[in-house]
Amino acid sequence: xxxxxxxxxxxxPGVARSVAVACRGLxxxxxxxxxxxxxxxxxxxxxxxxxxxxxxxxxxTTIRILNTxxxxxxGVVEVLGxxxxxxxxxxxxxxxxxxxxxxxxxxxxxxxxxxxxxxxxDVPRRERKLRVAEALxxxxxxxxxxxxxxxxxxxxxRRLELAQALVNRPELLLLDExxxxxxxxxxxxxxxxxxxxxxxxxxxxxxxxxxxxxxEALCDRVALMHLGTIRAEGTPESLKAxxxxxxxxxxxFRHFTGAVLDDDTERKGGLREIRSVRRSAN
Amino acid sequence: xxxxxxxxxxxxxxxxxxxxxxxxxxxxxxxxxxxxxxxxLRHDRTEVFTRAVQPVLWLVxxxxxxxxxxxxxxxxxxxxxxxxxxxxxxSGLFVAIFYGIQIIWERDxxxxxxxxxTPTPRSALIFGKSFAAGIRALTQVCVVLVLAxxxxxxxxxxxxxxxxxxxxxxxxxxxxSCVSMTVAGVVLKRDRLMGIGQLITMPLFFAxxxxxxxxxxxGWLQGLSTVNxxxxxxxxxxxxxxxxxxxxxxxxxVLVAALAVGVVVSxxxxxxxxx
Lengths: 282, 275
Known about the structure:
heterodimer, A: alpha/beta, 6-stranded mixed β-sheet, 4-stranded antiparallel β-sheet, about 40% helix, globular, B: mainly alpha, 12 helices, about 80% helix
């Protein structure tokens, strides 16, 4: 997609240009707690990739390393052909990121919120107005654009955040639990728009979720993450087929994580937690 | 644990350098944050008026009273004229010293995380915010200026002097907002920042030349006043607005240096807020 060449010496040997994300032996700890424990991950450009797992699996830490917020402690991580340690800004310019928490400036209008990020992403002044209007339009917020964002519903806030993330026309969109805390209608609306967008632009989408049914319906490929490691990876169909007829992705998850299910894993984020819905902190 | 996170935040900042060395980010982000600040102000103007109350009280009650008492030796300058630049600086200080609350608010709401993932160096983020704080302080200062003129303070009508005083207010407020954001990066909690803000505002104000000339202060207070950027801001404002003797070169040098140090220290700590 990008016509710019990779900076010399950043490529992971053997990683093709068609790869959006490449991690080799990624490990990250907070104090004594190992959040990500040596994961290998390859995400092809143009795919919707789901990173699935219960709370505490290490999904958010992985996302925060990919978006350059955290520097990886161990392993090689490349995003869009750039080493995350050395080329954080080149990556940021090509990235869209929506964090788990609903986060917008409530004392600005929707349009001002998006325009703010257009400026922070150095969208040229001539294009700015158009790009902002376009992002709002794609997310179905044109009519509400000049209302204060504090009056928006949860689903609208999430769509406004997507508009903010899209205004720099990212090559890779990172969505951390995009539908958490939303009602089913809002969840559906958010997903439908992500789908449309991918269809229209061919951008790569990496999404974390613990809603297995969403992942099953929408992701080209999924990786099942548990206690900092990736237990299985593949298309939802192939993962289910390997387990036998009638298996759901939830069964697949139980199968792969159940193999090591002991008291410890039960306590630290077993399957029961998959269904628990955390409220977003807004 | 906390210090480890701090070290990590610093290394990340240094590591981010190889693909990013653009001076243009500073004016660009300054303009952006300033615009956002003004947009917020446009949606809710009440703050402009509520924040005008305190300077009004200082000028009308304290100023008028001491003007009649002649208790403070200000030479041939009427006390209210002497006081006005001090109250202008004070109204800027009050806006700026609590500016860190905004960055804690952005942290709690998750907006800060998103700001830190934009191609904005942390120092440009802090510079942008301190610039916005300066502009915000300026809106307050305009109210005080009008009020001072109504009260008959003999303000300079020289446009250059007015612009110069705006610059001094912006530098001063920019520095104090960096102090506030630094405290925010240390305490991480809104309530604690409020407490510390209250704690340092009055000493900054009283241990300066805002209310009385340095000459009447006891020696130890003179010492504090010399290291207080507030004193340099007030000195510059007095020099430009009411034409008293001032050391403009030294004043602006100190204010610019203080702001630069403030931006550097504060941006080293902002990573802590994103953990």
